[in-house]
Amino acid sequence: MSADHFTLIHRDTSCGARLGSLKTAHGMIETPIFMPVGTNATVKAMTPEDLLAINAQIILANTYHLYLRPGHKLVKKLGGLHNFMNWQRPMLTDSGGFQVFSLGDLRKISEHGVKFQSHLDGSYHVLTPELAIEIQEDLGADIIMCFDECPPATADYNYVVRSLEMTTRWARRCKDAHTRQDQLLFGIIQGGMHHDLRARSLADICSIGFDGYALGGLSVGETKEQMYGVMEACASMMPKDKPRYIMGIGAPEDLVEAVWHGYDMFDCVMPTRNARNGMLFTSQGRINIKAKIYEEDERPLDPECGCHVCRTYSRAYLRHLYRSGEILASNLNTYHNLYFYLDLMRRIRESILENSFTAFRHSFFEKSVYNQK
Ligand SMILES: CNc1nc2c(CC[C@H]3O[C@@H](OC)[C@H](O)[C@@H]3OC)c3nc(N)[nH]c(=O)c3cc2[nH]1
Ligand SMILES: [Zn+2]
After folding, report:
1. Of 103 and 121, which is predicted with more confidence?
2. Per-residue pLDDT tens for 296-320?
């Protein structure tokens, strides 16, 4: 795809934050953006109508899971992911590498690809850069990811060197295998927690050339200091005219910090997974809705939240649903948590446009209970 898919709308004069607009085959995406995770072709406990109601602009799905079940050839036969799940806005799929390393059993890595056992039935499979691209072309997402190796945060320096060199060779193979011109292909930068190796991976991946660049290998158990250090070190080296995506990030405070450094796209299972466990994000901090103190609390979950859940239900009711194991608990909790994340990104975009994101970040960390510093 041509380089003009990403337009820089505005740069906050007070910091590295920027507003962008990314054009895809299924519509425009305003950045900075949070992307709800929809691993199995569904954002768990949410209908597409719910997602539209909270103005989700783009959602994710996962190559590894959809390859194993129901299979990319079936999804293609049924018209691709957008038709299959009734989501007509943009979608992004990951390449499966991360899941193979974190979900599959008995993995064997070679130059050819990764042999692994399905976590569903123990069957053996080999995922290669070429197959990862074929699967994503059949699924039909608007943005697809290169097949990479995400080394564990504890990997030693020499392992990380060999891993990033193979990830670069795999990235080349992905670009050669990619044929669909209506999809954007993003490269993934590795290099662990070593800033010199990050610079090397970044130079390698950028020399191949992609429609956007992701920071991989983060949110894998490293410390906040390590995560923020890699973010900061890479920000100044990443191409300014292309979207910058940090995979697996993150908590609200991580989003604010990453935007401040000039990143554009984020995904994390935290708002959806925490919702199903009763851990809810509010303007006053995290609320564990199963706590007894909410038993007779008729106030809304978050008085400052404008979502349907906060305008309609009491904390007492949400606690009752959760403790009763009701299915509605997952839907209402997820609806609110995703609204919280998407509204945070909306407020961030507003502040960037007003050149006041540095003040926004300062007040976020000063007054809010998300300040983990
Ligand atoms: C959680 N932390 C984290 N996730 C990560 C993912 C999966 C995101 C993908 O996994 C699903 O959510 C678990 C989401 O669907 C997302 O899809 C894009 C990564 N994927 C690749 N290809 N390479 C990485 O280095 C990587 C690092 C991560 N760190
Ligand atoms: Zn709400």
Report:
1. 121
2. 999 999 999 999 999 999 999 999 9
What is the ipTM score, two decimals? 0.97
Where does ligand 1 bind, in terms of residues with CB under 6 Å? 37, 39, 60, 62, 92, 94-95, 97-98, 145, 148, 150, 188, 216-220, 247-248, 267, 269
What atom in ligand 1 is closest to the CA of residue 145? 22
Q: Report the 3 state secondary structure along the chain.
A: CCHHHEEEEEECCCCCCEEEEEEECCEEEEECEEECECCCCCCCCCCHHHHHHCCCCCEEEEHHHHHHCCCHHHHHHCCHHHHHHCCCCCEEEECCHHHHHHCCEEEEECCCCEEEECCCCCCEEEECHHHHHHHHHHHCCCEEECCCCCCCCCCCHHHHHHHHHHHHHHHHHHHHHCCCCCCEEEEEECCCCCHHHHHHHHHHHHHHCCCEEEECCCCCCCCHHHHHHHHHHHHCCCCCCCCEEECCCCCHHHHHHHHHCCCCEEECCHHHHHHHCCEEEECCEEEECCCHHHCCCCCCCCCCCCCHHHHHCCHHHHHHHHHCCCHHHHHHHHHHHHHHHHHHHHHHHHHHHCCCHHHHHHHHHHHCCCCCC
The mean pLDDT value of the chain amounts to 95
Task: Establish whether 211 is a catalytic residue.
Answer: no
44 alpha carbon, closest ligand: 1
